[in-house]
Amino acid sequence: MSDRPIILGIVGDSAAGKTTLTRGIAQVLGPENVTVICTDDYHRYDRKQRAEIGITALHPDCNHLDIMQQHLSLLRTGQAILKPIYNHTTGTFDAPEYIKPSKFVIVEGLLGYATRTIRDSYDVKVYLAPPEELRTQWKVKRDIMKRGYTEEQVLAEIKKREPDSEDFIRPQRESADVVVSFYPPEADNESNLSVRLVLRPTIPHPDFTEILGLGSESFKPAIRLELDRDMGKPVDVLEVDSHATSDQVNELEMILCSELPHLRGFCTAQGNPEIGKLIGTTGEVLQSYPLALTQLLVAYHMMKAIHVY
Ligand SMILES: Nc1ncnc2c1ncn2[C@@H]1O[C@H](COP(=O)(O)OP(=O)(O)OP(=O)(O)O)[C@@H](O)[C@H]1O
Ligand SMILES: O=C(CO)[C@H](O)[C@H](O)COP(=O)(O)O
């Protein structure tokens, strides 16, 4: 049993869904057991300075990656940090806050896998990669609603950032144990998203081959497991369609949870009705089975890590 915090990284471009997934995983693990760190707090420059210098928040030079690295090392050994705070409402920094790590630490942000030492700080690494069109929709709506921007400003910012997204954000996908892509289904009338989970052999995943290969036909075609390549390397890919039924997903969840009996109580829809819920871009509450399964898979890895270390 680990006597140090288990650290999860959730990395991806702006509005890729990091905060949404982080909240969901914290629900599964129990919010009282989870400390969340957003790496936006390690920006080196405030909004005005960034505009003056002509640098984007995505550039490594625009972030105190060295301090982030130090803080991750401290958190990994259970020590407290004095963390800076970047305020998205004012675009400036607030007074730092004292943070003592809980049993689980989730570190979410833009450049979480930027250096080898930072990468080595995590027990589990997730990268979020929605299609760019969907990410743009999410960013436009979220930045208008919550961060006070106009649509033109958001679209101009995305355009300005694209070279840095290409050079510094997207290459981090290669370092992840799990790459998560929510995507819209082909049928227009479905509002829920499907998910594609790339499972790299860098950590031991649940034996989905046994579950889906030999298991009941009732999973197909809504839930599929296939071999593929991602950034040139062989991977397993688990896809859950938006139209997967609650019974299908529950069956998969129960099989997954049977490996970790103490996860069972709070991982299923019956055990935890909050699982798979999210706040949509217009503030509406949605529930998504593909999201529920993703939260559960990541929570599974966190729980496993507790027993390995
Ligand atoms: N799985 C999902 N299903 C539906 N909508 C989602 C999902 N994930 C994110 N969204 C929508 O996209 C918006 C942006 O997501 P979120 O705030 O989680 O992104 P982020 O990666 O944390 O962004 P940033 O790094 O810019 O803070 C949310 O307001 C939410 O409405
Ligand atoms: O990409 C982002 C991650 O949230 C933000 O845009 C970045 O943190 C800069 O913040 P702001 O847009 O408030 O100036």
UniProtKB/TrEMBL annotation:
It catalyses: D-ribulose 5-phosphate + ATP = D-ribulose 1,5-bisphosphate + ADP + H(+). It comes from Microcoleus asticus IPMA8. GO terms for molecular function: phosphoribulokinase activity. Residues 7-183 form the Phosphoribulokinase/uridine kinase domain. It comes from the Bacteria. PROSITE patterns: PHOSPHORIBULOKINASE. Belongs to the phosphoribulokinase family. Keywords: ATP-binding, Calvin cycle, Kinase, Nucleotide-binding, Photosynthesis, Transferase. It is an enzyme of class 2 (transferase). The gene is prk_1. This is Phosphoribulokinase. InterPro entries: P-loop_NTPase (IPR027417), PRK (IPR006082), PRK/URK (IPR006083). Its EC number is 2.7.1.19. Pathway: Carbohydrate biosynthesis; Calvin cycle. NCBIfam families: PRK07429.1 (NF005655).
